[in-house]
């Protein structure tokens, strides 16, 4: 069903009780998740939280691998939050931002590949528990590269092996999938990517979903500059989400990099076209944002320069969904002010 037909439905409208797949209770999967719970830090664990959101918003997101990639702990935690939100008649149900963000990235990846006849490489930086290579048919002509910490990729590969062995109809949808063990906070990730078969001169879609704000200012800027430099070699598309400064204050120990004006920043790094959307905009709605009084609609109706909401004085915490592109034969007409992190 088209997500736009779902109205403001939340996951619990479709499934009141949490139904966990049998695979989560097998010995191998339990051992893998014990490693996650006991050994991973917050940044690595955020990959499982993202997968849990995709699993519990399954009425709008098709991700049959999300349950096993999320794990019992994160599925139960998010399910309890959703139940509480429903009980309290919350205008924003837990996970809705993640659902909209996922659908936005899915739609943009498909549109970009359709316009390039599907021949572009796709690089997922900080891929985490992303399973697009197994669920998006638009990737059938694309070489996909997943870049993340080696321990994340190892556990993910083991979980996927268990899932694929137990479910016949699941298979790789991408032309190829290469996992690249690298930390994008370091300076050697591009070298490792190229050693793994990435071709710098080939059209590329770079995906930075739910990751850039965990980096320091210098780390994030280095990643963005590295991608932006590719605009001088070939047609390059960046899909990324950015927090504004107010959003990072929600957890200053977790979130670091911000940009209040990413549509000004990115042209200074080599991108000639930048389109910015906010949750609830026509291309970032997906039938989940009809309530005019929900937080996201109230925010996007305010000028972006407004830092506190006039109704209650709360900080205007915004998430920007940004598509930027550039090519060797295009020129940049905008320059950006300097950016810094808190």
Automatic annotation (TrEMBL):
Pfam families: LCM (PF04072)
Alphabetized Gene3D superfamilies for the sequence: Vaccinia Virus protein VP39
Transmembrane annotation, as ranges: none
Keywords: Methyltransferase, Transferase
Matches recorded under InterPro entries: Ppm1/Ppm2/Tcmp, SAM-dependent_MTases_sf, SAM_mthyl_Trfase_ML2640-like
Entry-linked SUPFAM superfamilies: S-adenosyl-L-methionine-dependent methyltransferases
Similarity annotation: Belongs to the UPF0677 family.
PANTHER family hit by this protein: LEUCINE CARBOXYL METHYLTRANSFERASE, S-ADENOSYL-L-METHIONINE-DEPENDENT METHYLTRANSFERASE YKTD-RELATED
Name recorded for this polypeptide: S-adenosyl-L-methionine-dependent methyltransferase
Species of the source: Hibiscus sabdariffa (roselle)
């Amino acid at each position: 069903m088209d997500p736009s037909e779902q109205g403001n439905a939340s996951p619990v409208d479709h499934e009141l009780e949490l139904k966990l797949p049998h695979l989560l209770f097998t010995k191998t999967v339990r051992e893998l998740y014990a490693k996650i719970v006991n050994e991973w830090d917050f940044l690595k664990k955020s990959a499982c939280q993202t997968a849990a959101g995709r699993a519990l918003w399954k009425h709008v997101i098709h991700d049959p691998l999300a349950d096993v990639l999320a794990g019992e702990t994160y599925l139960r935690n998010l399910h309890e939050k959703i139940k509480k939100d429903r009980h309290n008649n919350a205008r924003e149900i837990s996970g809705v931002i993640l659902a909209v963000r996922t659908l936005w990235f899915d739609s943009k990846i498909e549109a970009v590949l359709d316009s390039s006849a599907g021949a572009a490489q796709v690089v997922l930086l900080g891929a985490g528990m992303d399973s697009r290579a197994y669920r998006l048919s638009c990737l059938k002509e694309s070489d996909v590269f997943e870049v993340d910490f080696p321990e994340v990729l190892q556990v993910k590969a083991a979980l996927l092996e268990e899932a694929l062995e137990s479910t016949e109809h699941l298979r790789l949808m991408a032309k190829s999938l290469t996992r690249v063990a690298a930390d994008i906070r370091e300076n050697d990730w591009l070298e490792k990517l190229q050693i793994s078969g990435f071709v710098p001169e080939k059209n590329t879609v770079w995906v930075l979903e739910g990751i850039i704000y965990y980096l320091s200012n210098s780390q994030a800027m280095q990643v963005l500059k590295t991608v932006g430099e590719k605009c001088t070699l070939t047609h390059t598309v960046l899909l990324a989400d950015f927090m504004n400064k107010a959003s990072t204050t929600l957890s200053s120990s977790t979130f670091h990099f911000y940009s209040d004006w990413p549509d000004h920043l990115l042209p200074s790094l080599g991108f000639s076209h930048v389109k910015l959307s906010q949750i609830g905009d026509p291309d970032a709605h997906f039938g989940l944002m009809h309530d005019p009084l929900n937080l996201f609609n109230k925010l996007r109706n305010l000028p972006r320069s407004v830092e506190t909401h006039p109704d209650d004085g709360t900080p205007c915490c915004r998430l920007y969904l940004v598509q930027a592109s550039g090519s060797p034969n295009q020129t940049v007409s905008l320059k950006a002010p300097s950016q810094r992190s808190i």
